[in-house]
Please model this.
Amino acid sequence: MVRSLPEFAWRTNTVPQAARDLRSAFDNTKSPERFLFVELPEALKQPVFDEHQTNPRQIEAFFECLNQNLQALNLALPQTLAAARDHLLRACGFAPGAESWQQLRETALRLEPLTTHANLLAFLRRLTQSQNDDTGIASVLALVANCSPASWSDYEVQRLPELAQALGTMFRDARAALDEAAATPFRDLTPPQRRQAEKLQQEMRHFLAAQPNNKDSTIARAALLALAEELNSRNQQH
Model:
């Protein structure tokens, strides 16, 4: 189990000192017997085991401490990814937490067809093309940090808030511009009409997103413009 931990768990200094000492014990051991009965207890600040006497309480305390520190190593990367995810969400103007990730992706879907900035466009595409799960979040964070999370060191973790903030500023600016433009067509509507229009807009957005050619915004834009001209023509006739 220890050897299957991601590289980050072997590198990070954010885990307790006992967990770091445990890693060193695994790295430096040469004798399995000495490792189990002497080096592991010493790393965990537990009494070494006497070959002539077994104390059940000592064994129980040893394994409790061992499991706690193995758990700390096992959770090092997931907890770091959750913190990095929340940094990115806050930078983009969303509340922290896994439930906000889908909101971020839906907003990215709206912004992608209208974005030309290369860095922001790459970020939006990674958001829209990844899944709404831990693997998808890790993929987006890998783009932000320019490094796979499994290979992160504490340096990448410390840099991520700054990188997230730079992307988040562009994201929020693009979102504000889109919201302002989207509000203009609804300006003269009554509140009930506006709610209906926003609902229709959302339904059309989901419909377009489900189309096989949804990555070619030129097609969708042409179809919507043609539909708008058709509606204008009908209104003029009436």
